[in-house]
Amino acid sequence: MKQRQNQNAQAPTLLQRLGGIKKTTRTDFLTYIGVTVVFLVMFVLQGQGQLSNSLSGQLVPICCYIVMAVSLNLVVGVSGELSLGHAGFMSVGAFTGVIAAQSLQEAIPAGGPRLLVAILVGVIFAALAGVIVGVPVLRLRGDYLAIVTLAFGEIIKELINCLIVGWDENGLHIIFNISGTQSVNNLGLSENGIAIIKGAQGATITRISTFLAGYLLIMVTLIVVLNLMRSRSGRAIMAIRDNRIAAEATGLSVMKYKLMAFVVSAALAGGAGALYGLNFSTLVSSTFDFNTSILVLVFVVLGGIGNIWGSIISAAVLTLLPELLREFDTYRMLVYAIVLILVMLVTNNEWLRQLPERVRERMQEKKGGARP
User: Looking at residue 281, what is its pLDDT?
Assistant: First the structure.
């Protein structure tokens, strides 16, 4: 009896411990759980054939755009810098991942492990690109930084247009077709060789991306970004964002922490690019143009700068919206633009943002008045 009483006495203490978890930690766990629940629902519906072909085909791109939005939010929301070249890092990850996946078809015939290697290659090369670009670029501020990152994205696109890559038993064969006079025939491939990237014609790919891989990449991205935000380095990044002069006065290395956020964001974009590229049979560099960078920035702004949940929801909804509006035919992009404008007006209206709280207060007042 005494043991039972002791156990009962310990029960409230355990509940208190659970309730004593930090609010940010609870929010993070709710984010992980929410994403997992949505994935399980969509996975079951897809397995039962309840989803249309167009919606099933959008699952992997939605995962990629969610990763892009969350990673860009690390730069725009947490670091406070404006980057317009995020699609450039995505293209670096996409094409390096495609090269890795296509050249390892014989060494790693299974699609899952090969996809993992391709994503890791895309992450590494995109991170290197982030370091190369970030070191000189992050010394700039405001509009200058945005213009230079925009130029980087366009440069990457043009370089890929000049890139010709093939593979055979002797390894990779690479040509930069700057003059425009060379072709795949100049690679010197053997009979068993394959041409992977054909310049402006793009890459020919064996599709191996899956919805499960997209979900896992989202979870990795959330874990990396949220833990970085809650860490000492994340607090330093936000301190620099809020007051650069005060942060420098306390001894924080502005360049170090800004570069950290920039490189992590670029690496995650590279992973999303590799997954995105291996979801199609062909891939061209024009897919990752200026419009893609602006689209991802719209996801971040629409969902709320610094709001991770907002980035996830806006990326998913705005990726699906053009497909859902396809029945409007030629007017669908007009409707899409109108929806964007209305949502922006609503999210920036103080009265509308406080409306749910006012309704909740009114309901509580009515309940309190109804009691005898």
Answer: 87
Distance CA 195, CA 282 (A): 12
Give exposure, 328-340, as e/b (b: 16+ Cβ within 10 Å): eeeebeeebeeeb
The CATH classification of domain 24-324, taken from the options 1.10.10, 2.30.30, 1.25.40, 1.10.3470:
1.10.3470
Rounded to whole angstroms, how far apart are CA atoms 241 and 12?
42
What confidence tens digit (pLDDT) does each residue in 128-152 have?
A: 999 998 888 888 777 788 888 888 8
pLDDT tens-place string over residues 216-236: 999 999 999 999 988 898 899
Q: CB-hemisphere CA count at 13 Å for 89?
A: 35
Instruction: Give the Å distances, CA to CA, from 286 to 119, 146, 158, 208, 266.
Output: 21, 20, 9, 22, 19
Q: What is the pLDDT of residue 80?
A: 85
CB atoms near residue 104 (< 10 Å): 16
pLDDT digits (tens, 9 = 90+) for 53-76: 888 888 999 999 999 999 999 998
Q: Which residues are bridge partners to 282 per DSSP?
A: 204
Measured in whole angstroms, how far is the alpha carbon of residue 86 from the centre of its chain? 10
Strands 194-198 and 163-168, by their bridges, are antiparallel
Report the range out of 1-5, 23-27, 350-354 with the highest average pLDDT: 23-27
- The contacts of residue 307 (CB under 8 Å, 6+ apart) are 73, 77
Q: Rounded distance, CA 296 to CA 123, Å?
A: 18
Domain residue ranges of the chain, discontinuous segments joined by +: 24-324
Assign 252 to helix, strand or coil: coil
